[in-house]
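Notebook, student rotation project (T.W.).
Task set for the rotation: take a protein with a known small-molecule partner, predict the structure of the complex, and write up what can be learned from the model alone. Partner molecule chosen: NAP. Sequence and SMILES entered below by T.W., checked by me.
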Amino acid sequence: MKQYIVTGAGRGIGRDTALALAADSSHWVLALSRNREALQQLWETAKAQGCSERLCCLPYDLTHPEPTRLMEELSQWGKLHGIVNNAGLLIHKSFEELTDADWLAMFQVNCLSVVSLIRQVLPLLEVAQGAHIVNIGSMGGFQGSAKFAGLSAYSASKAALANLAETLAEEFSSRKIAVNCLALGAVQTEMLAQAFPGYEAPLSSAQMGSFIAWFVTHGHTFFNGKVLPVSVSTP
Ligand SMILES: NC(=O)c1ccc[n+]([C@@H]2O[C@H](COP(=O)([O-])OP(=O)(O)OC[C@H]3O[C@@H](n4cnc5c(N)ncnc54)[C@H](OP(=O)(O)O)[C@@H]3O)[C@@H](O)[C@H]2O)c1
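Predicted structure of the complex:
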């Protein structure tokens, strides 16, 4: 069995990534979200799909880490084969309207909570076959891509997350832990509707979730330290 963590699994892309991973009978998935009700719904969906016994749902706020509680949950697994750092926060405001608290909140969820989670579980990621950390970035944080007004803090935090993948890949290379960042384009979710009201994305969260589940399980054979655009359109 291979063990994976998916953050921000209460809805959207994270929810569908967790379901796609749990659909494979050789996987265990720990789904993290702050929202207990959403996690309950996720588990019921997994039950209907016949994979709930491989899905563990843990209410957890990444911005208030509880390492002891997390490690207790993971202790029954022994090792970890991958993490999908999917949880993300987007506050859509002009530069003048963005407060220091907004900047801090986005960097906290989109970047610093990833640093903290990786630090907590790092010893569990040293597996013989090699482990894979996947940061879910954004085209907004991809160098040279089209940029949008109102997304300065969000895009800067995603650029930091992308750079983190490049630097950690180098630092962890001797431990066979690969780190990559997927810079996503538009996917139909609540976050997209908030950032680009009325825009229809060409991809559903189920389609993107299936791709991310494949990527975290197989992508480290082909990529390490890469920031990869996963985008078919620009809003
Ligand atoms: N949709 C797109 O077009 C698009 C494009 C580029 C990149 N992305 C990235 O893809 C990822 C998923 O986005 P989405 O579109 O699925 O967004 P979404 O529907 O808004 O879901 C975001 C998830 O992040 C979680 N989250 C936020 N703050 C959290 C915290 N403090 N602790 C734990 N979980 C937290 C939320 O969980 P709670 O239930 O706890 O609120 C939620 O499940 C994000 O990183 C986003 O930046 C999305």
